[in-house]
């Protein structure tokens, strides 16, 4: 089932933007008529849209407080003043009136504020008395926090959350039943109590949310969250977590990263793999029987499984899915030991990057069995967040020394911490730095490269 969540509510924001632009241009025509031109109209429109984006001016949600709206209006007004005077200075416009400019800003921000506040309260009344503009939600779990959330939704009808069902293994509706329920019903938001769901069920919720424009949120039960930039919403005193709005959520940034991945992968495939593949084919075949490329399934973005490629480095590759390679592992061939130490065995994954399953830089993908094991050791929110981006051939955790065999819980905890830091702070410059650090580490050698 695929549906667009929220009915026609997605039109509210574009309509408000159009109304605000009309107010802006009407105010400029009335108060700045001595300097108004098509150029000024264009400048004001662009400045309004850009500043609105930078300040998240239209990021007002049903649980946003009115004081937040007032704060956004003040910041928007101040930024418009600064940019407008910078524009006047740049074009050396010195025949404008300070008083008229002040009235222009005051009239614009006041009018926009009135529209915003009226819309805010009108929607609340609409939800409370007419039952419209609702979000259809389910709650997974029956602990104290989950019960508080259900009570909050029932009490605050003006926020428009309709609880369809509560699922818990302590209730008649079991957690497993929720998956069938999602197939039958349109659900806009899923609230999960982290300590009551298995990794497999989390995986199913992530897939459903990704395919059905559904919001997935988590009810925390501990302070073991590694993210420094959590998107935390407070429903009265109850915190609810959702995957934060990071750089890679932007379609533009994803396109930039994808473009970089394609260009970099093509260069590696053409300049290196074109001659390395035939050479390794001969060397690997001389030492042991079996294919040149070892294919195995790993978890990618949103836990989606994909076939990952490596140059074969072991005699019995079927066993490698079950037991991690250890130092002096007798399953590894002589040529295999060399290509593992230098990470040459990972180079076929540039084809995975080209196919769109992986990125050059990102959290390293785990094999399916290891994903289940590590998921039991790590807070589920952290683990879901780690899988919110494409996995990489190299990553920040790897250049910091957390690669290869996981010997204890500290290894996987630190690996996840670095993965989350990378996701929260992504930039093309950071990707470039990690690639350079990876090359330096390969030249120097790493202790756990075996």
Question: What do you see in this structure?
Answer:
This protein is of the alpha/beta class. It folds into 3 domains: about 10-130, no CATH class; about 135-245, 3-Layer(aba) Sandwich (Rossmann fold); about 250-445, no CATH class. About 55% of the residues lie in helices and about 10% in strands. The chain is built from 16 helices and 10 strands. The strands form 3 sheets. Strands 2-1-3-4-6-5 form a 6-stranded mixed β-sheet. Strand 7 (about 295-300) and strand 8 (about 305-310) form a beta hairpin. Helix 1 (about 10-30) packs antiparallel against helix 4, helix 3 (about 65-90) packs antiparallel against helix 4 and helix 8 runs antiparallel to helix 11. It is flat. The mean pLDDT is about 80.
**How are the strands of the largest sheet arranged?**
2-1-3-4-6-5
Q: Report the average pLDDT across residues.
A: 81
Describe the global form. flat
Q: Major sheet: size, sense and barrel closure?
A: 6 strands, mixed
Binned, the helix content reads 40-55%
Number of domains: 3
Number of helices: 16
Helix-strand makeup class: alpha/beta
> Which strand-content bin applies to the residues?
5-15%
Supply Rg. 27 Å
Order of helices and strands: HHHHEHEHEHEEEHEEHHHEHHEHHH
Count of beta strands: 10
Instruction: Give the low-confidence spans.
Output: none
State the separation between the terminal residues, measured CA to CA.
46 Å
């Amino acid at each position: 089932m695929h549906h667009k969540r929220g009915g026609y509510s997605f039109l509210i924001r574009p309509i408000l933007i159009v109304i605000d632009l009309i107010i802006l241009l009407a105010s400029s025509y009335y108060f700045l008529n001595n300097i108004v031109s098509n150029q000024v109209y264009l400048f004001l429109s662009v400045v309004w849209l850009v500043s609105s984006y930078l300040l998240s001016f239209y990021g007002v949600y049903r649980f946003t407080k009115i004081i937040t709206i007032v704060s956004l209006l003040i910041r928007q007004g101040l930024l418009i003043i600064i940019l407008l005077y910078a524009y006047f200075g740049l074009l050396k416009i010195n025949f404008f009136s300070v008083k008229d400019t002040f009235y222009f800003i005051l009239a614009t921000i006041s009018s926009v504020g009135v529209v915003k506040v009226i819309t805010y309260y009108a929607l609340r009344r609409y939800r409370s008395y007419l039952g419209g503009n609702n979000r259809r939600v389910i709650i997974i779990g029956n602990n104290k926090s989950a019960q508080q959330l259900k009570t909050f939704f029932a009490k605050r009808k003006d926020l428009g959350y309709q609880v369809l069902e509560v699922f818990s293994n302590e209730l008649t509706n079991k957690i497993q039943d929720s998956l069938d329920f999602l197939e039958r019903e349109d659900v806009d938001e899923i609230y999960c109590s982290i300590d009551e769901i298995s990794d497999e069920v989390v995986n199913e919720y992530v897939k459903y949310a990704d395919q059905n424009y559904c919001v997935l949120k988590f009810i925390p039960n501990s302070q073991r969250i590694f993210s420094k930039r959590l998107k935390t919403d407070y429903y009265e005193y109850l915190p609810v977590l959702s995957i934060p709005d990071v750089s890679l959520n932007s379609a533009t940034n994803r396109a930039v990263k994808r473009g970089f991945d394609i260009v970099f992968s093509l260069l590696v495939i053409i300049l290196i793999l074109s001659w390395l593949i035939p050479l390794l084919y001969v060397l690997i075949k001389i030492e042991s029987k079996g294919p040149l490329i070892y294919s195995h399934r790993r978890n990618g973005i949103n836990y989606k499984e994909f076939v990952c490629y490596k140059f074969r480095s072991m005699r019995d590759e079927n066993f490698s899915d079950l037991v991690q390679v250890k130092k002096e592992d007798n399953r590894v061939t002589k040529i295999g030991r060399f290509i593992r130490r230098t990470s040459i065995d990972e180079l076929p994954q540039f084809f995975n990057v080209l196919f769109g399953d992986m990125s050059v830089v990102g959290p390293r993908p785990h094999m399916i069995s290891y994903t289940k094991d590590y998921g039991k050791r790590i807070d589920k929110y952290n683990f879901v967040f780690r899988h919110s981006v494409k996995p990489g051939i190299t990553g920040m955790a790897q250049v910091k020394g957390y690669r290869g065999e996981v010997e204890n819980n500290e290894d996987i905890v630190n690996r996840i911490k670095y993965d989350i830091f990378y996701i929260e702070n992504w930039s093309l410059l950071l990707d470039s730095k990690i690639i350079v650090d990876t090359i330096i580490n390969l030249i120097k050698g790493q202790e756990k490269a075996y």
